[in-house]
Every structure is written in C-alpha cells, then in structure tokens.
Specification:
Strands 9-10-11-8-12 form a five-stranded parallel beta sheet, sandwiched between helices. The protein is mainly alpha-helical. Among the domains are: 194 residues, Arc Repressor Mutant, subunit A (Orthogonal Bundle), CATH 1.10.10; 139 residues, 3-Layer(aba) Sandwich (Rossmann fold); 82 residues; 78 residues, Alpha Horseshoe (Serine Threonine Protein Phosphatase 5, Tetratricopeptide repeat), CATH 1.25.40; 98 residues, no CATH class. 62% of the residues lie in helices and 5% in strands. Helix 41 packs across helix 47. The protein is globular. It has 47 helices and 14 strands. It comes from Corallococcus exercitus.
C-alpha cells in the first residue's frame, strides 16, 4: 500500500501511513496537486509565479520555500524531489492519487463501454464513481492565481466529462439487465453532474417508469421544464417531450430486459417530499444503503441528539432504498403517539388500513404486512424507547418488512442495529466543508443571491464549530443573515442559546434548539439531570475518573446519557457534551448558585492538582485547566494558586500557548492586587507575566512587568521568586542591548541561588552570565561559566535549559571556527528542545544550526533548517525566532548572489527586530545589508549600513559586534598600506584570542599575503573595548583607498 494517499476530488484530504494529516494551507495543497498531476519536473521560478503572481519574485520564492518545507514535513523526504532550481515528484514515489486512479478506470472501459457488465468491469466503474467525491480541490481558494485557476478549471471540466461517461455506462449497463433500482442512483447523479443534458433526464424518466414510479417520472419532467425555462429560457427537447406524453397517457416505454416484479396496487402513505435538499451525508447514505441491503438487518435505528438531521437522513435513505423493495417505502411519524398502546394504531392509520371490528390493531397490522415487502420508516421514537415491544412482534410476524427508525436513543429491540448520526464535518480553518455548504444553502433561502465572501468565511467557520456541525443549528443560524453578518451571528449564539429560533411552521421540537433540548431533558430521571448539569463544567472531553470526582456520577448514571445521545464517549475513552447541549445544561446548573459554586470548585481543584504531578495534564485538558485557573482566581483560592502557579505556567509554556498564559496571569495579577494578596504571590504573577511578554518579543511590556515584579518581591522577602524575576529582567536587558544591566541582574540571581543552595537556579544564572561574556568578547569566561552550568543542568535533568546552554556553547564554537563541533552541539540541543516540546528553543536552535551549516558551505541543509525555523516561528507566534530565520535566509541568498531576495528578507527581519527592540539583532541585520550593498557596488549605501551597525554596537557596548563591523568598514576602503595605523590595528586584531574566526579571516584577507610578520600575541591582551577604540581612530585617520580593492572577494566569501 502506498505510504501517501492524495484524495483531491471533493474536499481534499492527505493521508500518510493510513492516517489523515493536518489540513495543508491552500497554496501548499495546490502546489502538491499541480506537481502530482502533471508528473514532470518544474522550474521553481515557474511555480512561484503560478502560486504567488501578486508578489515580487523574491517574496514569491520565499513563499514557495515555506510551502515546500511544509510539504516535506508532512509527506516525508521520499515523495518530492526538491532541488535548488526545480521541483518534481520522485520517480517511484509511494504515492496514490485518486484522480489518476479515476482516469485509469475510465480509460480501461472507454473502448467498449457497452460490454462492461459482460467483462465483469462493473466493479471498476463503480469504484470510479465512488472516487469522484466532488470537483478537483473543492473548497480550495486560489485567489489571484489566474493561470493556476485556469489549469484547475480545465482539469475539472475533463474529469466532469469523464464522470458523465462513467455514470452513463453504469446506468445503461444495469438497465439493460433489468436492474433498474441499481441504475437509478447513477442516472440521478449524472443529471446532477450534467443538469442540461436531456438524454440524462430522459434516462431517469425511463428508469422511474420501469420501476413503477410513473408519477415521479412525470414530476421529474416538470422540474426539468422549470429548470430549463429559468436558466436557459427554452423548453425540453423532442425526446423528453415525447416520453412525457407517453407516460401521461399511461404508456410507459418498453423495458430493455426483465423487470422486477411489483404489486399492482400501490400502498398509501408514500414518503413525504423533503422541505429542503439534503446537503452532504453521502458517506452516511452509502453506509445506510449497505446496511439496508443486508438481509440480516431487519431493524435499523438512527440515533443522535435533537437537530442532528436524523429525519432528513432517514427520508433520503428510504427514498433511495424504496425501488429495491417490492412494495416500496412508507413513512410513519410517531411524534403524536403519546402512549405505547397507541403505537400499532398509529402505524395502521398511516397505512390507511380499514377498521376490522374488534380485532386488535397490532394483529390487524401484522396480518396486513405479513405478505408485504417494504421499508417502514418510523420517525421520532425516543419517547417510546422502553415500550416498543409491539415493534418486535411486528418484525417477527412480517418477514418482508424492514424498520428504519429515528430516535434519540436505542430502542433495545431484538436484532436492532444502531446507526449513530453526528454533526456535519466542520472547518478547522476557513476551508469549505459540508457544514459550511449547508449554512450557505440555508442562507440563500433567507437572502436571495447570498454569496460567501472572503471576509465572512471566518465567521461562518465559527458558527459551524460553535454548533459542532448540527444541521438544525446551522439552518437556524443561517436565517439571521438577513440582519447580521456571520461574525456577529457567531458571537451571539456563543452567548445565547435562544438566539437560534426557527420558523413557526416547523414541528414544535424543531422551532428552536432549546425546544429540542427541553424535550430530551424531560425524558431524563432526576439523577441523570443532575449529572448532565454538572457535566457542563467540563470544557474538553474528560476521563471517567475526572467525571466521577467532579460530578459524583457513576457509570450507571452516565450510561443513559450516552444512550440518549446527550453525552458521548470519544475514541480516547473520554466523556463529552455537544457544545450547545453543554450551554443548555449550564443554564440548569446556574439555576442553583450554591451547587454551581461547589461543582466549579471541585473542577478547579481537581484540574489544577494535575500540574503538581510528574505526569501533568495532557494537551486535551488545556481548556479545562484554563477554566480551573479562572475559577480559582474568581473564588479567591489564593493558596491553591500559589501551590500550582509554577506547574500551570510550565504546562502552557511547553505547549507554546504564551498569549493565553499572559492574559490569564494579567487577570490573576489584577485580582490579587484588588484583594490585597500576599506580595510573594503578586510578585510571582507579575514575574511570570513578564517572562511571557519576553518570550512573545514584547520587550517594553516585559521590562515594565519585570520592574514591577522586582519591586513587589523585594518587599515580600521572597528570595527564590526574586531570583527568578531577576533572571527575566536580565534577559530583557540583554536583548535590549544593555549587557551591564543584564550582568547585574544575573549576578544578583546567582547570589540568591547560592545562598539558598538552589543548584538549578545557580546553573541557569551562570548560563546567562556566559551569554553576557560572549557578547562582550570574553569567550574564555563564557566557556568556563557554561561548563559549570551545563554540568549542573544535566545532573538535574532539565532538557529545556540544557538545550539553551548548548545553543550558547555552539555559538562559542562557531566564533572559534570549530564548525563541525558547533553543528554537533546545535543538533544535540535541537534534539532536546524537540523532546521537551519547546517551540521557542527549537526555532532558535534551528536558526543557529542554519548559520553553522551555511558557514561550512552546506547551503541546502542550511536553507532547510532556516525554513523549518521560520515556519515554526510563525506557527507559534515567536517573532524573535522569525527574525532570526529571515536573517539566516537573507545571508544564504546573498551567498548565492540572489541580491534582491537577500535584501528583501533582511529588511523584513530588520523591521521585525526594530519593532521588538532587539538592538543587537538590529546591528547584525544592518551589517549584513551593508554586505549586500557592497556586493552590488552600492558602496555609499554599504558604508551607511555599516556605520549604523557600528554606532548601535558601540552604544550597546558589544565589542565583538563592533569589531566585525569595523572589519567590514575597513574592507570598503581597500587594503591599507603596511605601516599605517589601520594596517597595524588590523594586524594586531588578528592575533586576539577573543575575535570571531570569520572576522579574523576577513582581516587576514584584507591585509593580503606577503605583508611581513604579524605582531606576536601578548600574554594578556588588552580588553576588546580598547581594541575597538583604537580601530575607530585608525579608520578615521586613514584616507579611503580605491573602491575596488578586495571588497568583492571578501564579501563573496563571508557567510
């Protein structure tokens, strides 16, 4: 079996190793489709132009790289062959594509379609018809991609034509064998595919007539007349008109083969006409058809909550199955049956059976149906769930009768088959699904010409998710488009269940969701009502243990709720409520305020206690954990918060949900301030909030929060919390370019940790002090500090901090020119960061690894590393890491002489760093932009960039950055004559042990070969700050040389 399966017909789906992957972005999916279906090698420039024609070439290529990275992550390396200039599907790639399989099946039968049955190929054509679930990339929007959209439309037209062939061949082949019931679905589908093909309509009319449904054939003709008149302004052609005249006179066309026998006198109570068209549900209808075709399935019950669409689904299933039953299908509504004793009478009345004296209704009904072969549809049986024994007797006495029942719970009949009905598939993002299609169809009934605009897609998706695809909820919500845009409808229904009210002529239980749920509520016992109300406090599916702890309900109480489809059990064995049922049940809980307070308190204490355990909560419990935190804040349970705060924050940081965490902490800090809570807890809340802001790149906010947290914690005499706050304040200062302030904070944290014997805090503080030392050019001190900190962190088993330390150590190795060791160190750190699910650490280490790879000449691998880091940073909202990735990609583009793209990427990264206030990064981006300008001959622009970078580095006191920039400025002037102050300064520079290896190499290249002996290294070299000052003076004193010099070669070689 192929490892990758691409389902591109209908709503697209990609599977790997048998499991569906997360939905791809539309452009990524379109790229994969184009490459897979064309089966040839494509130039990357062509692909970027097809998919992003509105972008500048550099930005389009960057978007293409991101899309390719996403596909490689999802599909694996054995599917796509991505080269520097081309992209193709690998030869022999383990990929199955439904479009190609469909075309193979069509081509195999095209030469002699009339012999498909004789050659045993009806299964192949049936498979082809099943493969065509909809048009190519249904729901995928390619806005602005005119050429690609034209290609898709051409493919769609070709495939639709092939589908018409397949459906015609199947319908005609089955009809030639007298299998009219089997032929009819294919013929109807062909009409839906080709609505103006009159031959297709004529075949449907013939099949209906041959099946004994002459009235339906005549109705079909009337519908055809109306459609042709409205759409084309014409009447049906000669063939359909003649067939209509013959049927009107009672002369059906001659059948091509043996007909299925039918009773001559039809039964009354035919199936009612549907009020609205059924949207979606094709997979469910196909499964229902198989169940009803099984001789062993005598009683089939559709179960599901009110409003899920059981009635409409049963009606369509019955309509499709009726031609297979000798006596067709009959419909009986049980909603007015108030007592079990009236059940048989209600069915007899629906079938219009004449009264027979004193004969009991059940006996009379059994006698009437004893020789019949029909499908009996019983709608709305849940209120008879425990008194449906007459139905068992009916089935036993009428062997040719099948029961199709709709109910909110199983009836527990002998031989009963259950068929759960759930909501329609909902969009994860803004893609089109069956739920969206139903909303749009209902909205068009409310507003003539309603169109789903791009600005409304997010609102419609919210509506679909809020009602969890419940058809009644979607139809009731869609009726409001006359007054409100979808976004406002979504907001309103999330607050108020009564917002969803329906038309007055609907059945009582379908006039509103409240009426539907109230009907179910009345059928519950008191224990079941109490359990359902208490279950409303859960936001996510909960384990049985959690349910028992919070609600006190046993499995014996839960079971009826599951049977009545008011609760559901997930595949993971957890228990959950439908979102709207939860909203309804919560109203009943709120009606008893003291009960509500106790239940929420148990919920909060139970879930927050999970963060204290080694295993901790799982990602599925995030919403409940967040609600538990809010409850603890609202109820003022400060002792609980103090005990669980660290674990709660660590959980959200691991998942990368920093914005949610910061908002929760801000709310808690405000409540703590108003309640005059102990300063230690208030300070901790502020310090953790500052840490969130720092991770999100909001340095100004982080600085303010850290300062306030430090002020509160100093008063509180809380050394442990004060030490953590100092670490955060130091990290903020370091990123803002204040190494002295950062060193003061880190030293303070180290002192506090040492005083209380906290080895973990000591190790963390030392690793941050190493960053300061490295930034100031003291690599030897940085290495010593890292070595001590790393040993402690490994001993304590903290993979997140170990990964961060390895990142700093890798930077030192890069500075020293040991690229192989640096790459190995970064990879070790990356492995730990991934294992710890540390999104920020992973993204930053990917950038560091990309730099080391680029310096070693491994550019393709470097590009993959930076692109992965960029995608992760954007997905997790990590602007600092995003800027790092953009910088790395810009450097690669400059090395590969793609100067326009390099400038675009670097400017985007520079803008991000400016906004974040990461001044050291600003200096780095400016320096690299200067190198791009130097390579393109824009020497004055290069000088301005280098000077701005130098000014920033000097303001920050980062000597290593200033020295690198000084070498670049010297390069613009050309090689200095030996003996000049600049030559002497550069000659001394290359002997310094703290200088980065790359800067030393550039300086050596600038000095040139054969320039005489260099100064010997002194035992105690002067501070780098003194060397910087000396070089600045030398540059100022030296006259500019010829602008040609060595600058081209030097900048070409620099990473």
């Amino acid at each position: 079996m192929p490892s990758v399966m691409l389902h591109l017909l209908g709503l697209p789906r990609v599977e790997r190793e048998g499991a569906a992957v997360a939905p791809l972005r539309h452009k990524s999916l379109a790229l994969l489709t184009y490459v897979a279906l064309t089966r040839r090698r494509h130039e990357r420039a062509l692909l970027s132009g097809l998919l992003w024609p509105e972008h500048e070439p550099a930005r389009a290529r960057a978007s293409l790289r991101t899309a390719l990275w996403e596909l490689l992550q999802v599909l694996g390396a054995d599917v796509l062959e991505v080269e520097r200039d081309t992209v193709a599907l690998r030869d022999g790639a383990p990929v199955w594509v439904d479009v190609q399989r469909f075309e193979q099946l069509h081509a195999a039968c095209a030469p002699r379609p009339e012999s498909v049955l004789r050659q045993g190929r009806e299964e192949e054509l049936t498979e082809a018809a099943a493969l065509y679930r909809g048009e190519l990339l249904q729901g995928v929007r390619l806005k602005g991609c005119e050429d690609l959209e034209a290609w898709r439309q051409a493919q769609t037209a070709h495939l639709r034509s092939a589908l018409g062939d397949v459906l015609r061949w199947l319908a005609e082949a089955h009809a030639s064998q007298g299998r009219f019931a089997l032929a009819l679905p294919f013929a109807r589908r062909r009409v839906a595919c080709e609505p103006f093909d009159e031959q297709a309509h004529a075949l449907v009319m013939r099949l209906l007539a041959w099946s004994g449904a002459r009235a339906e054939a005549l109705r079909h003709y009337e519908q055809l007349c109306a459609t042709l008149s409205a759409e084309l302004g014409v009447a049906p052609g000669e063939e359909c008109a003649r067939l209509h005249a013959e049927l009107s006179q009672g002369h059906p066309p001659p059948a091509p083969g043996a007909r299925e026998a039918r009773v001559s006198v039809p039964l009354p109570a035919e199936l009612p006409a549907p009020v609205t068209a059924l949207v979606g549900r094709e997979p469910a209808l196909a499964l229902l058809a198989r169940r009803l075709a099984d001789p062993g399935c005598r009683v089939l019950t559709l179960t599901g909550p009110g409003g899920v669409g059981k009635t409409q689904l049963a009606l369509e299933a019955a309509r499709r199955h009726a031609p297979l039953c000798r006596d067709g299908a009959r419909w009986v509504s049980l909603r007015a049956v108030t007592a079990p004793a009236l059940l048989a009478s209600a069915i007899a009345d629906a079938l219009a059976l004449p009264p027979e004296g004193a004969s009991p209704p059940l006996a009379r009904l059994r006698e009437h149906l004893r020789t019949r072969a029909l499908l009996l549809v019983l709608d709305g049986a849940e209120h008879l769930a425990h008194a449906a024994a007459p139905l068992s007797e009916l089935v036993e006495g009428a062997p040719g009768v099948q029961l199709l029942i709709t109910s909110r719970e199983r009836l527990d009949l002998r031989g009963e088959w259950a068929f759960p009905v759930g909501g329609l598939p909902c969009p994860a993002g803004v893609e089109e699904t069956d739920a969206v299609a139903l909303f749009v169809a209902a909205a068009r009934r409310a507003v003539e010409g309603f169109t789903l605009l791009d600005e409304h897609r997010a609102g419609v998706a919210r509506i679909c998710r809020a009602v969890e695809g419940l058809p009644l909820g979607l139809e009731l919500a869609a009726a409001w488009v006359r007054h409100f845009p979808p976004g406002e409808i979504a907001a309103q229904l999330e607050r108020d269940l009564d917002f969803l009210a329906g038309p007055r002529d609907a059945p009582e239980q379908q006039r509103s969701l409240r009426a539907s749920f109230t009907h179910s509520w009345r059928l519950l016992g008191e224990d079941e009502r109490q359990a359902l109300a208490r279950l409303s406090v859960f936001h996510n599916p909960a384990t049985l243990a959690d349910v028992a702890e919070v609600t006190g309900a046993s499995l014996a109480v839960l079971a009826p709720l599951l049977d009545k489809c008011l609760a559901r059990r997930t595949p993971e064995g957890r228990y959950a409520l439908h979102a709207l049922i939860r909203q309804y049940a919560a109203e009943h809980l709120r009606a008893a305020p003291e009960e509500e307070r106790r239940v929420h308190q148990r919920h909060a204490r139970g879930y927050l206690a999970k963060v204290e355990h080694a295993s901790g909560p799982c990602a599925l419990e995030r919403d409940d954990l967040r609600a538990a935190f809010r409850t603890a804040v609202a109820q003022g349970d400060w002792a609980l918060l103090a005990r669980t705060l660290a674990g709660y924050c660590d959980f959200h940081e691991r998942l990368g949900h920093l914005q949610e965490l910061e908002a929760a902490l801000a709310e808690a800090a405000g409540a703590a301030r108003r309640a005059d809570v102990a300063p230690a807890l208030s300070g901790r809340l502020l310090a953790r909030q500052a840490r969130c802001a720092l991770e999100l790149g909001a340095l100004s906010r982080a600085e303010a929060l850290a300062a306030e947290g430090l002020r509160v914690l100093r008063v509180a005499n809380a050394p442990r919390e004060l030490g953590e706050a100092l670490l955060t304040a130091g990290r903020v200062a370091l990123l803002q370019g204040h190494p002295s302030a950062a060193r003061w904070c880190f030293r303070g944290s180290l002192s506090l940790a040492t005083a209380r014997g906290d080895r973990h805090a000591r190790a963390t503080a030392m690793s941050h002090l190493a960053e300061v030392a490295l930034l100031q050019g003291d690599a030897a001190r940085a290495r010593r500090l890292l070595g001590r900190g790393l040993g402690l962190l490994r001993l304590l088993g903290d993979p997140r901090e170990v990964a961060a330390v390895l990142g700093t150590l890798g930077d030192i190795l890069c500075r020293e020119g040991d690229l192989e060791a640096a790459r190995a160190t970064f990879r070790d750190g990356l492995q730990l960061a991934r294992k710890a699910a540390n999104a920020r650490g992973t993204a930053l280490l990917l950038g560091q690894l990309g730099r080391a790879l680029a310096r070693g000449g491994e550019r393709e691998e470097a590009r993959r590393s930076h692109e992965e880091g960029l995608a992760l940073a954007r997905a997790a909202s990590l602007p600092e890491a995003e800027a790092e990735a953009l910088y790395g990609l810009g450097v690669l583009a400059r090395l590969e002489e793609r100067h326009g793209e390099a400038r675009s990427l670097l400017l985007e990264g520079l803008s991000l760093r400016h906004r974040l206030g990461v001044r050291q990064g600003v200096a780095e981006s400016l320096r690299e932009l200067g190198r791009v300008a130097a390579r393109t001959g824009e020497l004055e622009e290069a000088r301005r960039c280098f000077q701005a970078a130098l000014d920033t580095a000097l303001e920050l006191g980062t000597a290593s950055s200033a020295l690198e920039t000084l070498v670049d400025l010297a390069t613009l002037r050309g090689p200095p004559p030996p003996g000049t102050p600049l030559w002497d300064g550069l000659a001394f520079l290359v002997t310094l042990p703290g200088l980065e290896a790359e800067a030393r190499e550039r300086a050596r290249h600038l000095l040139g070969p054969g320039t005489g002996p260099l100064p010997a290294r002194t035992r105690r070299p002067p501070p780098l700050s003194a060397v910087v000052a000396r070089l600045v003076e030398s540059l100022a004193a030296s006259a500019p040389c010829h602008p040609g010099g060595h600058s081209g070669n030097i900048f070409q070689r620099s990473p």
